[in-house]
Structure formats: structure tokens, C-alpha cells
Design a protein that fits this description.
Radius of gyration: 17 Å
Distance between the termini: 12 Å
Number of domains: 1
Structural class: alpha/beta
Strand content: 5-15%
CATH architecture: 3-Layer(aba) Sandwich
Largest sheet: 6 strands, parallel
CATH superfamily: Alpha/Beta hydrolase fold, catalytic domain
CATH class: Alpha Beta
Shape: globular
């Protein structure tokens, strides 16, 4: 069975990356659906992209920061978004007393500080941090790593800092109850950027959510296990 060609799939990349990270998804879905990979600057530019292009019947797929942006848009564009896919996403990026399944405030502050002094070294560390030990031990890991960073156009420092500010300040837990479209949550079981318990929290607080945990995967399962992730998304759209 083939997917309806009328579906718009909008892929939103994460922090310190670009549209190219969706290379495996674009090649898989482009003959079946209308595929869009806008560059993420902030929530408003993605919202403008959807509205100005008149997109409807959307499956919105967001990864990490892009997933948090997608969560916000799911509450603002309910008439346009029909399906929501969250890949290695969290409703709150930084730990708090009542939400421990997140990165520590100290870690995110160190990243923020290092971006100002040595962007390249900070991004190199972050890209490697996105992968699980299992993924890093694979032959061909260096080629996989290129998709995450080396082939991405240089990221503006102000954009990086703005994205970090959003991650540090945003708490989307109150928004979860207002999401009523079907939601698929895909998450690597060894993700160190957004811990898997954050995905379980969302699955337990979004009405129509399904959770798929990817074994031996870190923060970027759509790159390291694209066939698995693509099949999950396709079956989800077919419903």
C-alpha cells in the first residue's frame, strides 16, 4: 500500500544542524508525499513557512529543538497539522526540581559559554555526544557523523545562542494536554541529550500518543537507523 501523495510532510531539524540531516527521510518520502525541509531559525519562521505556502494536511516531524518547536505549533496550527511526530524531543530541556529527565543546568550553561569562545570545538563535541557508544563503535561512523555536522552549512553564532536560550527557558509541559491530533514519539534508548524518560513523560501526558523506543540508538536514530524510523513514520501516517 502506498501513502496518499497529497500529504505534506514538514521536517524540522534540531539545534546546530540544518535541513540536510533529513537526507534519508527526503529520499524515502519524496515520491510518495510533498516533502518540505525548511531551515529552522525560530518558531515564527517555521510558522510563517507553513502559512505563507498554504500548507494543509500536514504531518509535522520535529527532532530535538525542532520537536519542541513542533509541539508549540501543534497548539497554534491545529487546522493545518493532522499528525505530529516527535523524534528525541523533550517538553523541558533543562532539569528542574520536578523534572529530572533532562540535561543539567550546569551542562547547558557550559555549552552556552563555550559557544562564545570556540564554536567549532563545541559543535564537534556536541555532534559526538548525540551518538550512543554502540553507534560510535560502528565501522563507517565518521561518514555518519558528516551528515550531522560536516555537511551542514555554517551555523550563525547568534542562531546557536538564540536556540540555546529557547532550550534553557522553555517548559512545554503545560501545553501537552492541549495536543489532540495523533502523535508518534520516537526516541533512542541511549539518548544522552534528551533522556528517554522525557519521551515516556510526553507519551503519558498527550492524549493520542504512541511511543516507539529505538534500541541501541542515541539522539539521532533517523540517521543511524533510517529504515526503522521511516517505517514507523510511514505506518503512522497510514494509520
Amino acid at each position: 500500500m502506498r501513502c496518499k501523495k497529497s500529504k505534506n510532510i514538514v521536517f524540522i531539524h534540531g539545534w546546530a544542524s540544518g535541513p540536510y540531516v533529513w537526507i534519508h527521510q527526503v529520499s524515502h518520502f519524496k515520491d510518495k508525499h510533498k516533502v518540505h525541509t525548511p531551515e529552522l531559525i525560530d518558531k515564527n519562521n517555521i510558522k510563517d513557512f507553513i502559512v505563507k505556502n498554504g500548507l494543509k494536511d500536514i504531518c509535522l516531524v520535529g527532532w530535538s529543538l525542532g520537536g519542541m518547536i513542533s509541539l508549540k505549533l501543534a497548539t497554534e496550527l491545529k487546522d493545518k497539522i493532522r499528525h505530529l511526530v516527535l523524534i528525541d524531543t523533550t517538553p523541558r530541556f533543562v532539569q528542574s526540581e520536578d523534572f529530572q529527565c533532562a540535561i543539567s543546568k550546569n551542562t547547558i550553561e557550559k555549552i552556552h559559554s563555550r559557544i562564545k569562545t570556540d564554536v567549532n570545538a563545541t559543535l564537534e563535541w556536541f555532534y559526538k555526544f548525540c551518538f550512543s557508544p554502540n553507534e560510535r563503535s560502528r565501522s563507517g561512523f565518521s561518514e555518519i557523523l558528516k551528515i550531522t555536522g560536516d555537511f551542514v552549512a555554517p551555523v550563525n553564532q547568534d542562531t546557536l545562542l538564540s536556540g540555546l536560550k529557547f532550550l534553557m527557558q522553555t517548559d512545554l509541559r503545560p501545553d501537552l494536554a492541549g495536543i489532540d491530533m495523533p502523535v508518534l514519539i520516537i526516541h533512542g534508548d541511549q539518548d544522552r541529550v534528551c533522556p528517554p524518560d522525557a519521551a515516556r513523560f510526553m507519551a503519558g501526558n498527550i492524549k493520542n500518543a504512541k511511543l516507539a523506543i529505538i534500541e541501541n540508538a542515541g539522539h539521532v536514530p533517523f540517521i543511524t537507523q533510517p529504515e526503522n524510523v521511516n517505517a514507523l513514520i510511514e505506518n503512522f501516517i497510514l494509520g
